[in-house]
C-alpha cells in the first residue's frame, strides 16, 4: 500500500506540472521560426517581429518585418502618393491658371538691343549640370512611387522592369554630381541670397507678377532667394537621406532607414513641385528670363525692370563706357 500511495502522489505531481505548463502565458512559449507550421501572424504575436539568420557581420539586416515596417508600407503605398499627387498636380494646375489669366510677363519698355552680363560660364555650367541631374533624378524617383500604378499598365511588365532597373542605376549614380552641384550653388551664391528688407517689399508688391509693377531688387530677388534656399536645404536633405538608403546599415538600422525614406520622399516631391514653378518663370513665364542662363546676358531693359538695384550697382561699378553694357549683335559675336 505504501508503494501504491507513493505512485499516486507522483502521478498527481506530474499531472499538476503538465497543467501548469499548459496554462502558462503564450509569450513564455518558445517559437521556432524555421518550423513549417509557424504562420507569419503567430510570429508577430509571439515576437512582435520576424527576424531570420544572416551570414554577414551586421545582424540587423536579418530583420524581415517589424511593426514600424507595416506603418512605413502604408505611408509609401498610400500617404506618399496623396502628398505627391496633391503637390505636383496642384502646382501644375496653379501654373496653368496663372498663365491663362496673366500670360507671359512682358518687358514694359521693350528690348533695348543692348545686353549686360548676368551669369558667367562657370555659374551657368553648375546650374545646368545640377538642373539636368535634378530632372533625371525626379523622373526616376517618381517612378518608384507612381510607376507601378500609372506606367506599368501602359507599357507592360517586361518594359516596366527594364525601365525601372535603368532608372534605379541612373538615380544612384547621378546623385553624386547633383550633390556636388548643390554644394557649388551654395558656395557661389550665398553672398547674394541673404534675405533683407528689399525682399520683404518685393514680396508685398507681388514680385512684379501682377499688373505692371516692378519692385526694385538686387541680383537675386525674393523669389529667387526662396528657390536658392529650397535647392540648398531640400537638396541637402534628399542627398543625405538618399545616401543613407544607398548604403544601408552604415550608421543606422531598419528604423532609421525607414525614417530616411520618409524624409527623402516627402522632401523630394515638394522639391519637384517648387522646381515646376521655377522652370515656368524661367521659360515661358517671363520674357527674357531664360537668356540669363541661356547666353549669360540679359537685355538692359530687362535688368532695369526686374533687378534695378543690381543694374545700378553694375553700371556704377563698370562705368558708362567700358563695355559692360553692349549691343546685342556684339554680344552674339
From TrEMBL:
Protein family membership: Belongs to the formate dehydrogenase gamma subunit family.
Q: Which UniProt keywords apply?
A: Cell membrane, Electron transport, Heme, Iron, Membrane, Metal-binding, Signal, Transmembrane, Transmembrane helix, Transport
Subcellular location(s) per record: Cell membrane
Region (Disordered) residue ranges read 313-333
Its recorded name reads Formate dehydrogenase subunit gamma
SUPFAM superfamilies, from UniProt?
A: Transmembrane di-heme cytochromes (SSF81342)
Domain Cytochrome b561 bacterial/Ni-hydrogenase, first and last residues per copy: 118-296
| Organism domain of life | Bacteria
- Membrane-crossing segments per the record: 82-105, 125-146, 173-190, 226-250, 262-281
| Record NCBIfam families | formate-DH-gamm
The primary site where this protein sits is: membrane
UniProt signal peptide = 1-28
Q: Which organism is it from?
A: Bradyrhizobium ottawaense
**What membrane topology term does the record carry?**
Multi-pass membrane protein
What cofactor(s) does the depicted protein rely on? heme
Amino acid at each position: 500500500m505504501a508503494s501504491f500511495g507513493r505512485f499516486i502522489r507522483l502521478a498527481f505531481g506530474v499531472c499538476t506540472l503538465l497543467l501548469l505548463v499548459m496554462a502558462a502565458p503564450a509569450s513564455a512559449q518558445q517559437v521556432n521560426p524555421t518550423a513549417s507550421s509557424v504562420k507569419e501572424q503567430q510570429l508577430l504575436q509571439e515576437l512582435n517581429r520576424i527576424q531570420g539568420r544572416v551570414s554577414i557581420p551586421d545582424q540587423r539586416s536579418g530583420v524581415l518585418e517589424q511593426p514600424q515596417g507595416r506603418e512605413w508600407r502604408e505611408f509609401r503605398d498610400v500617404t506618399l502618393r496623396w502628398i505627391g499627387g496633391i503637390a505636383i498636380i496642384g502646382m501644375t494646375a496653379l501654373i496653368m491658371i496663372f498663365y491663362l489669366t496673366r500670360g507671359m510677363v512682358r518687358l514694359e519698355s521693350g528690348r533695348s538691343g543692348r545686353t549686360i552680363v548676368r551669369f558667367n560660364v562657370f555659374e551657368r555650367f553648375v546650374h545646368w549640370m545640377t538642373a539636368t541631374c535634378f530632372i533625371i533624378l525626379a523622373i526616376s524617383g517618381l517612378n518608384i512611387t507612381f510607376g507601378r500604378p500609372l506606367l506599368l499598365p501602359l507599357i507592360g511588365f517586361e518594359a516596366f522592369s527594364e525601365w525601372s532597373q535603368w532608372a534605379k542605376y541612373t538615380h544612384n549614380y547621378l546623385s553624386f554630381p547633383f550633390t556636388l552641384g548643390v554644394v557649388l550653388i551654395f558656395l557661389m551664391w550665398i553672398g547674394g541670397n541673404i534675405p533683407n528688407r528689399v525682399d520683404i517689399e518685393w514680396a508685398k508688391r507681388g514680385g512684379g507678377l501682377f499688373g505692371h509693377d516692378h519692385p526694385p531688387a538686387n541680383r537675386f530677388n525674393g523669389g529667387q532667394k526662396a528657390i536658392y534656399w529650397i535647392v540648398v536645404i531640400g537638396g541637402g536633405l534628399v542627398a543625405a537621406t538618399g545616401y543613407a538608403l544607398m548604403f544601408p546599415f552604415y550608421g543606422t538600422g531598419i528604423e532609421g532607414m525607414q525614417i530616411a525614406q520618409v524624409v527623402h520622399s516627402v522632401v523630394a516631391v515638394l522639391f519637384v513641385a517648387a522646381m515646376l514653378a521655377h522652370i515656368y518663370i524661367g521659360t515661358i513665364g517671363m520674357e527674357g528670363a531664360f537668356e540669363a542662363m541661356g547666353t549669360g546676358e540679359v537685355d538692359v531693359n530687362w535688368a532695369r525692370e526686374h533687378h534695378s538695384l543690381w543694374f545700378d550697382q553694375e553700371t556704377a561699378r563698370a562705368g558708362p563706357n567700358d563695355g559692360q553694357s553692349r549691343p546685342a549683335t556684339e554680344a552674339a559675336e
